[in-house]
Amino acid sequence: MRIVSGIQPTGNLHLGNYLGAIKQWVAMQDAMGPDDTCLFFLADLHALSQPVVAAELHANTVEMAATLLACGIDPARSILFNQARVPAHTELNWLLSGTARMGWLNRMTQWKDKAGKSGETQSVALFTYPVLQAADVLLYKATHVPVGHDQKQHLELARDIATKFNGDFGVDLFPLPEPLISKAAPRIMSLRDGSVKMSKSDPSDASRINLIDSDDVIAGKLRKAKSDADVLPETVAGLEGRAEALNLVTIYAALAGVKPDAVLAEHAGKGFGAFKPALADLAIATLAPVRDRLTALLGDRPAVAAALAHGAAKATALAAPTLRAAQEAVGLHL
Ligand code: TYM
């Protein structure tokens, strides 16, 4: 298996990103066999599709790399790098731009959502973003791409681009990448409103647990998290219509690495007065070591940058033959 995935360096990683994406990456790395390769990268080029402040993009990239390392991505086993340091991504992006169709990109829901009625004033990069994403995975002949549900359509587009490229140029260059949307990767919702995603753009910091939060802050946010006055039922079916209660049980289950029904089997009949402290204890026990490693890594940014440079060299070597074959396929031999 060739596993490839990326994350935008937006800064301030929270529990939703951790339980929804990064925990899966670490699990895949840990389950890797001798013939498998894992590549994980910071999609710093994708960040340019939105307005950026240079110093912030730079700091966020180092911080996100530190976060991935703190969460357990091991640069001795996985190839960890930032996209901008491997120019083959942008080169393949251009070759694939000749294959991707305007109509395909026009149908991307993320483009439609983000561009809304103001498409004319958006960056060209926001529109062509999924072509670069296709290049990211096809460059390494990825077989599996672990992502959240919101990225599924982008992966389908990568498959369409790969199929058309292979067909148009009569080559068998790109295998079709499979999106891996783990059922264990839950959608973590805001602590203040069970109907919206936990997100770094929520103006209320109390809506999310940040990976950098202290034990006291974690406990305080969970104590104040919105819940209800009922007791916990015996199965998840009993949580219907109780979005906040379901979210807290989901978080508990994801942190413990068990199914929500297993959490309920243990806590059925308890109210949130008893459940929340148990959840806080579990959250602190899981997140404190991540935070402590992250704090240490943030104190040694040159070491983080060196880890990325090391990964970029390995990624460049892996990408070179595919890029060369793609150039030859389209007639760029000289
Ligand atoms: P990004 O940076 O928005 O998100 C990174 C990963 O986290 C998942 N995710 C979530 N999963 C569950 N619950 C949530 N609340 C939640 N929020 C985010 C996303 O689905 C994603 O898997 N375009 C990509 C980055 C990218 C990429 C790639 C991914 C660029 N090239 C190639 C895979 C392969 C993005 O913006 O993800």
From TrEMBL:
Enzyme Commission identifier(s): 6.1.1.2
Residue sites binding ATP per the record: Q8, P9, T10, G16, N17, G148, H149, D150, I188, K197, M198, S199, K200, S201
Motif, 'KMSKS' region: chain positions: 197-201
Transmembrane segments: none
'HIGH' region (motif): residue ranges: 9-17
Entry keyword Protein biosynthesis: yes
Keyword line: Aminoacyl-tRNA synthetase, ATP-binding, Cytoplasm, Ligase, Nucleotide-binding, Protein biosynthesis
Domain of life: Bacteria
PROSITE patterns: AA_TRNA_LIGASE_I
CDD domains, A to Z: TrpRS_core
Gene Ontology terms for molecular function: ATP binding; tryptophan-tRNA ligase activity
UniProt enzyme class: ligase
Residues given in the record as L-tryptophan binding sites: D136
Catalysis: reaction(s): tRNA(Trp) + L-tryptophan + ATP = L-tryptophyl-tRNA(Trp) + AMP + diphosphate + H(+)
GO cellular component: cytosol
Keyword Aminoacyl-tRNA synthetase recorded: yes
Localization: Cytoplasm
Gene Ontology biological process terms, A to Z: tryptophanyl-tRNA aminoacylation
Assembly and interaction partners: Homodimer.
PANTHER family: TRYPTOPHAN--TRNA LIGASE, MITOCHONDRIAL
Family per record: Belongs to the class-I aminoacyl-tRNA synthetase family.
Function, as annotated: Catalyzes the attachment of tryptophan to tRNA(Trp).
Name the record gives this protein: Tryptophan--tRNA ligase
UniProt organism field: Sphingomonas panacis
Gene: trpS
